[in-house]
Write a structure and sequence with these properties.
Blueprint: H1 11-15, E1 25-26, E2 29-32, E3 38-45, E4 48-53, E5 66-67, E6 75-81, E7 84-89, E8 98-100, E9 102-108, E10 112-119, E11 122-129, H2 137-141, E12 144-166, E13 176-183, E14 186-193, E15 201-202, E16 205-206, E17 210-216, E18 222-228, H3 230-240, E19 245-246, E20 254-277, E21 282-284, E22 287-289, H4 300-309, H5 311-333, H6 335-340, H7 347-359, H8 362-382, H9 403-420, H10 423-436, H11 468-472, H12 480-489, E23 507-509, H13 510-517, H14 522-536, E24 548-550, E25 602-607, E26 611-616, E27 623-626, H15 643-652, H16 658-665, H17 673-676, H18 687-691, E28 696-697, E29 701-703, H19 711-719, E30 727-729, E31 735-740, E32 743-750, E33 770-772, E34 775-777, H20 780-792, E35 799-804, H21 812-820, E36 825-829, E37 837-839, H22 841-844, H23 848-876, H24 881-896, H25 923-927, E38 929-933, E39 939-946, E40 949-956, E41 988-989, E42 1092-1096, H26 1101-1106, H27 1110-1113, E43 1118-1121, E44 1127-1130, H28 1134-1142, E45 1161-1164
Parallel strand pairs: 2-9, 7-8, 18-19, 25-31, 26-27, 27-29, 29-30, 32-35, 35-36, 36-38
Antiparallel strand pairs: 1-2, 3-4, 4-5, 6-7, 6-12, 9-10, 10-11, 11-12, 12-20, 13-14, 14-17, 15-16, 17-20, 18-20, 21-22, 23-24, 26-39, 28-41, 31-32, 33-34, 37-38, 39-40, 42-44, 42-45, 43-44
Length: about 1250
Amino acid sequence: MYIDFRDRLGIGTLFTTVISMLSRERDSIIYRPALPPSYPLAVRNPYLSTWMPSDQVKTLPYSEPQFWAGQSLSWSVMARIDGETYSLMNGKNAGVDILPAVVSSAEYTSTHSIFTLSAGPVTVTLDFFSPVSPFNHLRQSLPFSYLTVSLSAASSSSIQIYSSIDDRWVGKQENTDRNFQMKDTTAIFSLGINNSTLYEERNDMATWGEAIFASRSTPSSKLSFASGKCENIRSHFIKTGQLNGNDPWLPGGIVALSHDLGIVTGSQSVRFAVGYVREKAINYLGAPYTGYYRANYSGTPEAVTYFLDDYQDALRESLKFDLELSTKAKATAGQKTDDEVPCSGALAGAISLAYVRATGDREWVAKYQDIMRPYADYLVDNGVEIAEQLSSNDAAGPLANETNLAIKAAVGIKAFGQLTGLTEYSRIGKERADLFFNQRLGTDQQKTHFVLQYPDKPASWKIPYNLYPDVLLDLDTFPPEVHQMSSAFFKSVRGEFGVPLDSRQDWAKSDWNMWLAATFELDTRNEFVEDLWTFMTNGKHNWPFSDRYVATSAKGASPGVPILCRARPTPRPPHNFGPQGYPLPNGATGPVPGATPLLPNNGRVIQNGPVRVLCIADARADHIIHTGDFGFYDDTSLDRIAEKTLKHVAQYSPLLPENVKRAIAQTPPQQSIKQRFSPDQLPLSELSMLLDKRLTLDVPVYTVWGACEDVRVLEKFRSGEYKVNNLHIIDEANSRLLDIGGVKLRLLGLGGAVVMHKLFDNGEGKTTIAGGLGTMWTTLLQMGELIDTANRVYDPSETRIFVTHASPAREGMLNQLSVTLKADFSISAGLHFRYGSSYNEFSVNPSLDHYRGKLAASKASFNDVWETVRGEVEAAIASNEAQKTLLDNALDVVQKMPTIANGGNPFGGPTGPGNAAGQVDESAFKNMWNFNLADAAFGFLVLEIEAGRIATEMRAQGFNFAHRGGKPPVPAVAGQPNPPVPTGTPGVASPAARPAVPQFGQAQPVAGRPAAPQQPQPQPQQGQAKAPAAAPARTSPVPVIPKPATPQPSGPAASQHAPTSPEKAAEANGTSQPEKPSESPMPRPEKKQSNGLFVSNVDNEQAVRDLFPEEDKAKIVKLDKWGKYNHVVMFNSVEEAKAALDRQPPEHKKPTPPGQPRKPNIKFFEDRGSHRGNAGTWQSSNRGGNTSQRGYQSGGASDSEGGRGRGGFSGRGRGRGDRGRGGRGGRGGFNKGGPTSDSPAPSTSTPSGEKPAAAGDA
C-alpha cells in the first residue's frame, strides 16, 4: 500500500508550522522544517552512517551519498515508468537513457529523511528511516535502516523500481567479495573483504564486517536481483525493467535489487533494507562481543527477515517518538528548538540519563552508596584548590583552578548529600556555592560573571554550563541570582552565531550552550536557541551536524562553519531544557540494584550482612529463588493455551474462585472451557499488573520458567519488550551471582519440562526458547548452551545452586547434569506437593548400583530418541559450528552416564576392568544436596546466609490425610495463625489493599485448611535483617572539610570496636574434616600461595608439558588431570611455579575470547580441598578434583502426574538453523581468568575529621 507521509502519517502536520524563516524556497524546493547541513539516510551506528549533504539535495537524482567522514558511497535508486527510466538518487554517469526526476520537497524528523520527486506522471517519495527505539532493545540493536519507495500515479502506468549499492560500503574496494541468498521471499546480498583483519578501520570505516542489501517480494511485485558491473546491470534494467541474476564478481561492482509492480493505478510502495553487520562487533577488555540482537537471531538472514517484518511496528513507534520529542521541544523553547532536535545524536542515551537522575530510587542509592562516597569525598578534598587538568573540553587545554570545575564539584557534593540523606555533604556543597559566588572567589569583584580561572583573572570568563544539573535536579546549590547574572552577562559577549566556550576561544560548543541556556531567563534562552538554529541553517557547510563551530569573527576566523567534528555522538544533545521524565519500558530502572555485568548475559548482585533467600515453587526475605510456573501469561495467552493445559492451570490457580475451579474440573472433554467461560473469568496470571506497575516486586526475584507458561511472553522478556523491575529470568544463557553474607551464590538454571521426544523440537518458539500451546519444554541445544554458560563463569570459590522446574531425583539427565555442573545444591519444584523434601543421593540410594540404574534408564530412553532423529539433526546443523559445539556439549554429558547399573562412572572419573569398573569420585554423590519444594501456598525453603555460613530452614503447612477413605479436611481452629505465606507477602507490594484477590502468584487461602504456627516473615528491606553478631559498631563523626577556604565543622572522632572471632564451624556431614574459616569482619590472614598451576583447554598430559620451556618442564614434579580438558601442574616451590607462569606468553594468561578457538589458559591453582562443609560452613563449590568440568545438561519438569499432558504436542518442525548465538561455540573448558580472592574484610571507619559519615553507618 502506498504511504503518503504528508497526509496519512501526519509528518506534514508535525512539521509544517511554517513561519517566514522556516519555509523558504531554494530553487523551488520546499524544505521542511528547515534546510539542515546534511540529511541522515541510514544512521544506526558509527559504521552504518550514510548522509546526503544538503547542497546536493537540489541535484538528488545525480548526487552520491556520503559516509559521515566524507567518503562517497554509491546508493542508486531509479524508477522505470512506461518504459522510460528516471533517476531518483545517485544516477551519476547513468547515460543518456536515464532522465532525472524533479525534486519538489525535502523533510526530516528525528527518525526519517523524506524526499518527494516527480518522475513523469508519477509522484515518488523516498523515505529513509533509521529507527530510534529506546524502549525496544532488540529493535535498537539491529544494524539496518529502511528505504521505502512510495508511488502515486494519477493514471495507470507500468512501473519498475531499482536500487543498488557498491562495495565502497565495506571500507575499501580491494579484494572484495559478494554473497547472495534467498530466505523465503527475501533476497539478501552481503559484501565483504576477503581475509579481513579483525577491528581494522580505513578512514573511520570498518573493514571486518559485511554490508547488507536486501528486499522482499510482495503480492503486487516481482523481485529480481543481479550483481556485477554497474553499466551492464543498469543497461539491462533500462531495457527490460528486470535484473538477470549474478554475473562473475569483480571488485568495484554493484549489487542490485528490482521490483516489477506491473500496472499501477493509485498508490503502491516497495521497501529495501541496508545495513552493516559486524559479527564481532566490539572488543571489550580483550573479549569480542556481538550485537544484542544476536541473542534472538543468530544469523544475518534471520535478523534481516525480522527487521523487514518489524517495519509497521517500528514505523508506529517512530511517529509517536517524533511527535513527543517535537512537542516537548517546541513547548520548551519554540519552533526552532524542534528544528534542531532531530539533527542531534544519541537521543536515547540522553533520555536514559535524565531518567536515572530523576528517579530517586532509594534502593539503588543504598546499594551503591559505598561506591559513590569516595568520589564525593574526592570533590570535598579537591574541589577548591584544583590541580592543573583537562576538563571535558580537552581542545581548550589544561587549566588549574577552573571555576566551571569548581561549580561542578559543589553541585556534585550537594547531589550526593540529597541522594544519600547525608546532610553534611549537602551543607558542604551549599557552602562551596556561597564561597564561589557570594564571597566572589569565582566571580569578578562586581559579580557580573563567573571567571574562567580564579583567583586573579577577573577579565576572563567561561560559560558555566555545569550549573545545568543544579537546575535539572532542583538542588538549589546556587541561588537564583547566579542565573540572573549570567543571563545579563552573556548578551554582551554574543557573537554572530552565539557565545564562544570561553574568553580564549572563538568557537562554541552547541551542547554546552544548550545546557547553559536551560538555566537562563526566557529572553536569553531564546537567543541561544536562535544562534544555534542560525548556525545549523546558514547554508555555509554540509557536514553531518557538528557540535563545535566558529561562533564569532572577533579573532579573525570566518564564523558559522564547523571545526573538526562531524556527526559527533555527543552525550549532551541540544534538547535538555528541563526534566524530560521519559520512563523506561514497564518502569524498569535498569539492572537490579547492585547488579553489574560479569560476562555477556550474566549478572552479579553484591550484598553484605545477613541475608535470607526464600526459595518457593509456584508463584510469590531479601531475595527470592523461584522454580517455575511463575505466571508468564499475558492478556493474549488465553487464545494460545490448549484446553488440557488450561484445565491444569485453573486447578492450581489462586486467581479463580473455588466454584469456577470446580466447574472447570467437571467440564467434559468435548466441551471448550474457553467457550463456556468469558476471558475475564479465566485470569491466567497477574503478570499484566506487574508490567504496568499496579503490582511491584520489592525484592529481587530469580526464576526459571515452568512447564505451564507462554513461550511468546518469555520471548518478549528476552527481547526487552517486556520488563519487570526486580524480576530476573535464569535460563541457558543467563546466570546470576549473588555475593551475600560472605558467600558467593552462583545461580544456574533451566526451566520447562524434560520430555525425551521433545528435546529436538522448538515448537512455537521463534528463538531458542521451546514451547507451545501454553506449555514449555527443554531442548538438547539449550542444555549444550547452558554448559557453555556455566563454563564461561566458572569460579571454584562460588557455591553453585542449580535451579530447575523438574526434580533431578526423577530425571536422570538432570541428575547427571547437576553433577557435571559441580552444583552444591539443586532446588526444584515439587509436583504441587504440600510438603517439601531434602535429600542427597547417598542418603536415598542403598548402593551405588541403584544410583547407576536410574542414570542408565534415562540414558537408554534418550538413546532411543537420538538414534531415530540423529541423521536429521546432524544434517540440520552441519554448517553451523556453534550449534555443533552446543550439541557436543550436551551429548558429552549423556556419554558420561552409565549404560548398565553395575558398571560405568557417572562422574566422568577413571574406570578400569574387573573390580575397578565403576570406581567413582563419590564426593558429589555424598555431599551435593537436593531440595524439592512445596507449593508456596503450603511451605517454603529459607537459606539464611550470614558470616560465610548457609543455614537452611524448610517449612510446610502440614500433611493432609484426607485421601484416606474420603476423610474431609480438618477444619481450621479459631484463632489459629495464618499459613506461612499470607496475602501481604513482603516480596510483592501492591499500591492498594485488595482483600478479594491475592497478590500476584500467591495462593488463595482456603477455609478449613490447617494452618502452621506463625513463622517470622522475611523482611522486604535488606537493612531489616538481623545484624551479624560480630559486626563492628560505628559512631557518626561530624565531618571536617580539609580546605582552608571552606568552613571547618567539628565533632567527635569515629570509633570502632574490634570484632569478635566467629565460632568454630561444624564439621562436614558428620565426618572429621579440617576446620574451614567462616567469613567475618576480622581481616583475613593472607592465603598461602600455591606451588601449582592450573592449565585449562588442553586435552592430554603431553600437550600440557609441551606448553612449558625445557627449564620449567624439568622442574615439574607432578601432573594431575582434572576433568577432560583441565590439568594441575605441581612444582617444588611457589617460586618455581611463579617463574614458570611468568615465562608463559601473554595469550596463555588470559581467557580465550568468546567465539574464538580455545587456547590454553594457565593460572595459579587454588586448592580448596575435596570436602564440602555442612550447613554451618557451606561457602563454595569444593568438589573432588577429578570431577569433569565440561559437561552440563538441562532441566525442566516431567510432571506427568499433574495431568499436564506434555507428551503429545507435535511442534511445527521449525528447525534450529543458526542457533549458535553469534559465534559462542567452541568454548569447553572453565577458563575464567586469574585466581579469585575472597571478599575483603570491611574497611575500618574513617579517621576523625576526614569525611562526612552517616549516623550508624557500618
